[in-house]
Amino acid sequence: MTEIKLHNTKTRKKEVFTPIDPDNVRMYVCGPTVYDRAHLGNARPVVVFDTLFRLLRHVYGEDHVTYVRNFTDVDDKINARAEATRRPIRDITDETIEWFHQDMDALGAMRPTHEPRATEYIGQMIAMIEDLIAKGHAYEAEGHVLFAVESYKNYGALSGRSVDDMIAGARVEVAPYKRNPMDFVLWKPSSDDLPGWDSPWGRGRPGWHIECSAMSYELLGDSFDIHGGGNDLQFPHHENEIAQSCCAHPEGKFANVWMHNEMLQVEGKKMSKSLGNFFTVHQLLEQGVPGEVIRFVFLGTHYRKPMDWTEKKREEAEKTLLGWKSAVSVFCDDLPDGIKGQQPPVDVVSALADDLNTSLARTRLNEYAKSAQKGDLQAAISLAEGMEFLGFKHDHTWEVGFGASLNKILDDPVDLGVYEAMLFTARKAAMETKDFAEVDRISSVLRDAGLEVRASKTEVVLDFTPDFDPSKLEALK
Ligand SMILES: Nc1ncnc2c1ncn2[C@@H]1O[C@H](COP(=O)(O)OP(=O)(O)OP(=O)(O)O)[C@@H](O)[C@H]1O
Ligand SMILES: [Zn+2]
Fold first, then answer.
1. What was the ipTM of the complex prediction?
2. Where would I look for the motif 'HIGH' region in this sequence (predicted)?
3. Where does ligand 1 bind, in terms of residues with CB under 6 Å?
4. Which residue range(s) make up the domain with 458?
């Protein structure tokens, strides 16, 4: 079995990953607050943890991995948006979730096993808060319930800070009802015009942190394998999740491995809604940047390094990915059925297994692409399988905005007359006899003659390069 190593924020080390139960490997990732289109930064953890999900499914089996990513659909930012637009909250959250799905699908991200909405777990949150009060970790004050950070001695361990450092360094809300300025809200009162649920502390709504603790417990249990999210969530969100979960369920360990992706930046600053320095995934797709190109760019930088989106990266990604797709599509009909990333090349898997070294995986696939372009069918198969594994389609359809060069080929049908029929027949014969040596031969004759061939199930598309030399096609006979 492939050995996976992951960097664990908790221990600050790269460690061999050993699941609690290899028959059910469990991962929780903090999902979006749904009031607006996802910006490109929000897409980074989606692609990072999708890649990990694919790796885990490959190593432990498709049915042996449970991936939970929540939707935060109760939040003051959502309330503010509803008030500003005079729209019902549910319309806004439903619409945003639909957009999120469309955009992330376009990036080739698989849907997680469960995508719980916070509002469907209010009962579990209330039960957990009651439990925390009963165990002496939380207290009620003026209609609020607060978590008492001093009651949990490991508070701050994930980010390596003491409570005193936090108070000194953080801008915390100093409310008169807090016993310690770092105490955080588990429950707060709602006025009649705001969403609210009945609770032992009156009508109110949950704080953000308790949502993830309640949903992960409900869907994954008191101990699970991996907890992920952007490193902007490490403090306070993840510290607070740990405090709540470990105090409510001291019998469990909560998450064994904590993984944090670095930020997508714009001129050295985190891309964020509050700074206003963002563009959305949807905008990029509309501008004709294919979702797979966005994915390709993300995979070029290790997830624990900050990265920028640049036009140059986009262009290079599009060019390389087109090269891969055409290298595979030359052999499209020859590829064995069922290429579904089941047998991705070992060196690509091992790159990912080393703390998701996606850029190395990309480099290795590029080597296969180079060999495939020279007519090596085995390399083309590896490339196709590796592409599927990394979340790319191996046919030459873009999710959006066909690349300019591809358009040119498809819009420019050629009439090769007699040659064309001969090519087609020769190729078909090779395919039916599964004589791959013959396919290799044909494809190299074509390439030598200055013709590029793209074949799909239904048609053969030919493209002339400037070096086209029809006399060289005689070698086909
Ligand atoms: N610039 C970024 N780069 C990488 N990940 C990010 C970035 N901004 C947010 N994230 C991640 O996106 C996920 C969704 O977060 P969330 O919905 O809370 O974002 P947000 O708070 O709405 O965004 P913003 O921080 O722009 O206000 C989280 O895992 C978060 O860490
Ligand atoms: Zn969370």
1. 0.96
2. 32-42
3. 30, 32-33, 41-42, 44-45, 229-230, 232-233, 261, 263-264, 270-274
4. 416-476
